[in-house]
Amino acid sequence: MRSLNIQTTKTYSNIDNSFLRTTQHIGGTRSGKTYAILQWLIVKCITNPNLEVSVVRKTVPSIKRTVLKDFKEILQSMQLWITDSLNNADRVYTFSNGAKVQFINTDDPDKLRGIKSDILFMDEASEIIQEAYFQLSIRTAGKIILAYNPTISPYHWLRKMEECERYVTTYKDNPFIPDEMVKGIEKLQETNEKYWKIYGLGEFAQNDKAIFQFNVVPIIPKGVDLIGIGMDFGYSNDPTAAVGIYKIGNVLYLKELLYQTHMTTNEIISFLKDLNLGKLEVWGDSAEPRLIEEIYRSGINIKGVKKGPDSISFGVSLMQNFKLNVNEASQNLINEMYSYQWLEDKNGIVTNKPEGGLDHAIDAARYCIMSKLHSGARNKKRLLISGLR
């Protein structure tokens, strides 16, 4: 076999020299981390017959726009690309020695349980939920490579991960970046201090577009009232989320009770009955009237939340009127609240509309708070439910 001459970046040697199974590659913009990782994977495939590699992103469009496009470009530059070797339907590329690279999206969790790999690479891993990572990692025999930008909450599962090596790279580690791009990145020092820290230096920074200011607390203290539970329903792509809302004065305590995909109606009912709620009100997404009715008929005091015009903005505004504390065990809720931010318009101007997407637990909390704490709602009865504190 002919020798390969590859021009690559620092990330390639970082993976080569790593000694733990899992490596995290945290990079600012144009650090070249994704490209170098794909180069490393290609070399592994060429030199290891029948190797099976999984390259993962959250959605199919993001796969086609980024990692698959770069993968093809690298093989073409090496004069190794064979069009017929790519199965477009399954997004699997097969090398002449039997090694395979499969490009997987995680927004269809049903497909993750049967996937086995020798090497797993998750690009933009911060967009991927921990359950998807878990399902893929337990079916990976060898190395796990995670790449992402430092834009995530301090409470995100990636930052809490132990037994991994972390490498930080920046544009300065990429000798192939054009001078004009370097100037553009370095100009951030003058124009946007936060972006310079994240995208220039590859460091974590606060989210200055964040909608909520909140504290993380170890426990729900005694003496606060449990005023209700909010629920947002999902199934395959989105989780079903439940959040308990506690109130004392102008302070709210939020506790994540449930955050799980693929829950059937009977499983949701069983979960709620195990909480021994009595007559405590549960407020659910009114877009699911059949589900709410079935839960109600099981003996749960569930109601559909009333959504008026701009109900999202109204609910967010109402939540902002309170001091918010989130129980530290509520990892998914914390990650959502940290990431939940104002939408930017096409000119980069921050609007007063929330940016949707990762907001399942937030929606659950909002449903309950809108229904119980708007100016027309009155509920002074104190409820203490065992097992929820």
What does this entry look like structurally?
Strand 6 (119-122), helix 4 (130-137) and strand 7 form a beta-alpha-beta unit. With 389 residues, this protein is of the alpha/beta class. It has 13 helices and 17 strands. It has two domains: 10-200, Rossmann fold (3-Layer(aba) Sandwich), CATH 3.40.50.300; 214-373, 2-Layer Sandwich (Nucleotidyltransferase, domain 5).
Write a short abstract of this structure.
The chain is α/β, with parallel strands linked by helices and 389 residues long. It has two domains: 10-200, 3-Layer(aba) Sandwich (Rossmann fold), CATH 3.40.50.300; 214-373, Nucleotidyltransferase, domain 5 (2-Layer Sandwich), CATH 3.30.420. Helices cover 32% and strands 22% of the residues.
